[in-house]
Every structure is written in C-alpha cells, then in structure tokens.
Amino acid sequence: MTDQILPAIERTKRAIEANSQKHWIIAYSGGKDSTATLKIFLAALKKVHKKPRAVSLIYCDTGVENPVIDEYVKRTLLKIDHETTALGMDVSIDILRAPLEDRFFAKVAGRGYPTPTNHFRWCTKALRINPVVRFIKTFGAEDAVVVLGSRRDESQQRKRSIKKNGDDYWQKQGGSSASIFLPILDLNISDVWDTIFLLGVPVSIDASEIERLYRDASGECPVIKSPNSPPCGSGRFGCWTCTVVRKDHSAIKLVDAGHAQLEPFLEFRNWLAEVRNDEARRWPVRRNGVQRPGPFSIAAREEILLGLLQLEKSTGIEVFADGEIEHILGLWGKDYLFEVNIGVRSADDSIVHQAAVREVVERFA
Fold this sequence. Notes:
Elements: H1 5-18, E1 23-27, H2 32-47, E2 54-60, H3 67-86, E3 91-96, H4 104-111, H5 123-137, E4 144-147, H6 156-164, E5 170-171, E6 179-181, H7 189-198, H8 207-218, H9 249-256, H10 263-275, H11 298-315, H12 324-341, H13 347-364
Parallel strand pairs: 1-2, 1-4, 2-3, 4-6
Antiparallel strand pairs: 5-6
C-alpha cells in the first residue's frame, strides 16, 4: 500500500471525529476517484470512536448518464446498501434527480435549448449541482460536510480550482455554507488504483469491473501484472449527450470494445452536435427579441423528440422520465404563439400541427 493511503484514512478519521455532529455526504459517480474516496471514507469510519450524526452516499442521476456506467453504478449501489447494512454501518443511499422541468431533454426538446457548449454549459448546474444543493437544504447546509474525490494531480484546471477554494483538504465554494472535504487530495493516479484494489470495504465494489470499464473507455490500458501496477492512466465517463467535447472518445472506445448498446446513443449524440448550430433549425431571434439565432424551432424539437422516442424503442433503455413527454408538448403549446408572432408559422397551422404531433407521439408511446 502506498505512502499516501494510510495517511488519507487517518486524516479522514480525524475529520469525522472532529465533525461528528454533522451530516456527512459522499458524492459517488462510480468512477475511479469517487470509488477511492468512498473506500477511504469507509475505512476511516470503521476506526472512529465517535460516529457521525448521519452518512449519505449520493449519486446524481442526470437522466443522460452513459447507459453502461449508469447500469453499473445503480447495480453497485444496491450491493453497497446490502453490505453496509450487514456490517452495521448506518449509510443511506440517495439517488438524486433534477425536477422534470430541468431535465436535459425537457430543456432541449421542450424549451429548445441548444445543446451545451463551452460558452453555454447550462447542464452541469441544472443536472448535478442543483439536485445536491436541494438535498443538502433538507437538513441544513451548515450541518453538512460534502466529501468529494477531487485531486490536485487530476488536471491543471482542477488544481487551479482547488487552490482558488482553499488549497487544502477543507474547501469552501460560493453559494453554499456546507463544508467540503477532499480525502484523496494528494493521491496520484497510482495511489487511486491501489486504493481501489487493496482496500476492503465495500467488497461489493468489483475493482476488476471498474478496471475493465476504464480499459474499454481508453483502449490503452496496460495489462495488470500486480496490484501496484495501475490498470489505467485516465479516462472519463459522463453524459452520453455531451456536446461540449468535439468527440466522445470514451464512448467510441466503449463501442469498439464491444458495448454495442451504446452505438445508437453515440450516433444520436453526433447528430445533435451537427444540428446544434444549424440556423435553419433555430428561431431567427432570441426570446428577448435580439436578432440572433435563438432556440430550436418547434419543427426541430419535433425531430429531436421523435428521434429520442425511436432511440428508446430500439434500445429498450429508458430515455424519458414519467410525465416528461407531456411536459415537453406543453412547452411547445406555449411557443406556438411565439412562432406565429415572429412569422415562422401561421395560427391555423399551429392548431393542426399540435394535434398531428400528439397523434404521432401517442403511437410511439
């Protein structure tokens, strides 16, 4: 075991004991860093003399997570729940979701938001940050400690962010009075993999499965010769809809490695990236009247919705939440008048079109 792991456990133990009156929240995504963080936290929790008031393990289900990773995480969370219960560890499992109006396709297919770019990255706050903030507010931010798997060694951008918010194991971020604790701040990538393979609880996390997922996503992982030889150098998993990056290299590698169920999602994502800046599919004005390309037209949103319904039907993987399609159609109803006012369609056409779209959607559903 590397020199960094045992000190990380001891440091986390002291932090828990010094803040035992607080609600501890471990953010878990299923990736290597959040897995190492969870293992170090639970190793420390086993050693504390004074248990914390409450411990929650949270997963943000954005509704557009990579389906392979989402299935793995939810299956693993069930096993972790059973294991911690059997061990007498009082850890609640909480899957957080954005409300219907903030879901990705409620915004894109419903409101006509262009898919995210580096300059308009609206998805992170709506799908990941806000659900956590709402969860924390249910018991008071001042009484919460959020445990994150951030590392200085992860990237230059992450290193700058950590330095900006305190540059040590305790961080503060604007907009919340919750404390943030970083157990693996000083771990490098080899330390992370050693933590995953060498620490025990939770044994329900299959280290070899995580390694295989990273191997498949990067396509360049060396063969494991010993636990001290990290299986993968990098690799990231995220939303299958992400158009911030030019190409979703991890999804491409996963498809090439045999995860064929991802191919239709990758094709749809690539199509979204192509049509995002097609001015023929956008209103000629923004909602505030500025003469620049605005939201997707209702005709373009119809293309997106019907494509998603076909994707859901062909893959058997749920894309929409209960009530989401009806919510999207309701948003269109409010925008038909706007399209009439800007001359995109006539009032009579709007009435006929709404009825025709509902009929098509009902046939799919």
